[in-house]
User: What shape does this take?
Amino acid sequence: MSKKIKISPSILSADFSKLGEEIVSLDQAGADYIHVDVMDGHFVPNITIGPEIIKRLRPYTKKVFDVHLMISPVDKYIKDFANAGADIITFHPEATKDINKTIDLIKSFSKKVGISLKPHSQTELILDHLSSIDLILVMSVEPGFGGQKFMPEVLPKLEALKKIISEKNLNIDLEIDGGINFDNCEIAKNAGANILVSGSTIFKENNGNLKKNIGLLRSK
Ligand code: DX5
Ligand code: ZN
Assistant: This one.
């Protein structure tokens, strides 16, 4: 049975001077999740927000905080993000020395576990861990910035993962992240994604009509 399509707007494209209000607007506009891009200037060449900001944003919505950690090292910060109110904690396999340990650490805080693959990171990195995780985030841009161009060359990776998940009858969400817009959201869903992350399309298209843009990504 195919999973319901969920939209996870990335607040990287939101107005950082009023993130609380922006999150309320996303909630009211029908976002399923709130995608929070955490960057440390080390794993990726950009710096965004940390656990303290997430803790301040938590009371603004009950929606799932889908936290994408583009940081390394990562283990030493899991506790802070869990306590700040993250619901899904997604990390990059290249950011940890021991994938199992990071998975167990996230689970020890009763949070859902996601693993993210950069465009050139191969599925082999995570195949041994599929039975322990809840979500795979397939990146369709190089991590670090919003507003980049979608990389269709990641679609075969998405299709391969979808096939493996179906064959093994696993309950794993497939999330695609980067450059998602009204022209490519359908091919992303057809390739197997059931969660679409979008920042610039949701915040910029149709004069920033969040409800319309979220609806279009979901229904197209
Ligand atoms: C990039 C982030 C993405 C990005 C998506 O490193 O992980 O979530 O913010 O933004 P758009 O939709 O503008 O590509
Ligand atoms: Zn992201």
Notes: The chain is about 30% helix and 20% strand. The chain has a mean pLDDT of 98.
